[in-house]
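Structural prep section.
Before we set up the soaks we want a predicted structure of the protein with flavin-adenine dinucleotide in place, mainly to decide which crystallisation condition to try first. Input record follows.
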Amino acid sequence: MALLAALREIAGEGAVLTAPADRAAYETDWRQLSHHQALCVVLPQSTAEVAAIVKLCAAHGVAIVPQGGNTGLVAGGVPAPGGNQIILNLRRLHQIRALDPVGDTITAEAGATLHAVREAAARANKLFPISFGAEGSAQIGGIISTNAGGMQVLSYGSTRAQVLGLEAVLADGRIWNGLSALRKDNTGLDLKQLFIGAEGTLGIITAVTLRLYPAPSAQACALAGVADVAAALELFTRLRHQCGPALTLCEFIDGPAMQLGAAHTPGGRLPFGASAYVLLELSALDAAATPAATLERLLVETLESGLTQDAVIAQSTREAQGFIAMREAVSEGELREGGAVKHDIAVPLAAIPETVAAIETLVAAKYPGCRLNIFGHLGDGNLHINIRPPAGQTLASLAARKTAITTDVEALAVARGGSFSAEHGIGQFRLAGMRAHKSAVDLDLMRALKAALDPQNLFNPGKLLPAKD
Ligand SMILES: Cc1cc2nc3c(=O)[nH]c(=O)nc-3n(C[C@H](O)[C@H](O)[C@H](O)COP(=O)(O)OP(=O)(O)OC[C@H]3O[C@@H](n4cnc5c(N)ncnc54)[C@H](O)[C@@H]3O)c2cc1C
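Run finished without errors. Recording the tokens verbatim:
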């Protein structure tokens, strides 16, 4: 009670939610698989409030689960089992503090949504290039803490590449002001890197300065039909060779996943049937460039050679947005249709076809009847391998085999020089992968950093680092 009263003192009466009905949505992850109680949800409005809350929780020995938009797919932003913790949701800390059109930077508070930052950039005729289906809810603090990827990593890099400076609250309640907008600063260790991809285990990000880019003057988007992932990879390789960084998006979506996406997109309609699809975007900065003509010429060549089976170039921005919306709706569609055992692997590009073939063989042999959805960021070697239960069965029917499925799929990727977690992070759901695939030295270094920055294990316990054996 003393803690709750003190939290209300800091953040205000209405900013501390204790009723189970008020807490429920914050305690449950996006996939609705993890539900553990928090003492309360606190909604601070300033960095100073965050610092005061951290000091208070440290004094009471109460852990803090930092939370952004709660769109994470590995249950990193919701409580782990164990009780004595509060959720600190950053959504009220959401101002855009500054936009520098000369230096091409934007400074935003952690709770600003990705969409709000992209919109603020667009109003200044700039681009913030991180983009994915959950951008209306995902927050800047969340995307930095997970080092999110998305659809344009191909040209611009992941979130880590966009961060110039950070402000964070440390475990002792001090505010670290690293909000630099400099592109060069070799003055010792680059401390901001500690917090990027740390999933809220080392500090609470309260504000950030991000890189912006010139907005493209023209773009063209196309949907191509291909026989399989090997053909998709060849298409990517050809286009990348001819277009370089102007190829700003190259997504692979297999037929079943695309049908799911179309079915769950308002007005969604696939322009043609195919066993697999590749979604492409070419961008140009030069006002005289004609990316639609370039894309058409290149796709005609691939149609003539038989590499692609069909292709449609969007005739309007609205049609292009419709193609992208169908791709983005795949995850939501899966969830609405009962969920899947999800994976987020990356492999070297050349290993994609054999990895997918090995996964198809595995599923047919060990998990017959299960339905595979394979889609993802082809140009990054990052595929989501999602396994749905046999038709007519619920996800619960896979409960006993879920761990074995994930162990098998992740091992296939790692054996080919890949990663078991490409862009979603570790959270609670990938801890077994950390244990299985990270070396003892990797884990020791991570534990040493955790002990140095958060000796009380105050920030996000039970996430990212597996417990010691
Ligand atoms: C439909 C859909 C599509 C998606 N597509 C992609 C995709 O293409 N690429 C991709 O990478 N991800 C994708 N995701 C996953 C998810 O959106 C990202 O992981 C996103 O970065 C999470 O942001 P969030 O604000 O929702 O964070 P949350 O889910 O709230 O939290 C994620 C992690 O960050 C920590 N955290 C949050 N805010 C802070 C803070 N201020 N300080 C310190 N730690 C913090 C949390 O403790 C947690 O560990 C998708 C999710 C959905 C639902």
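Observations: The radius of gyration is 22 Å.
Flagged for discussion at group meeting.
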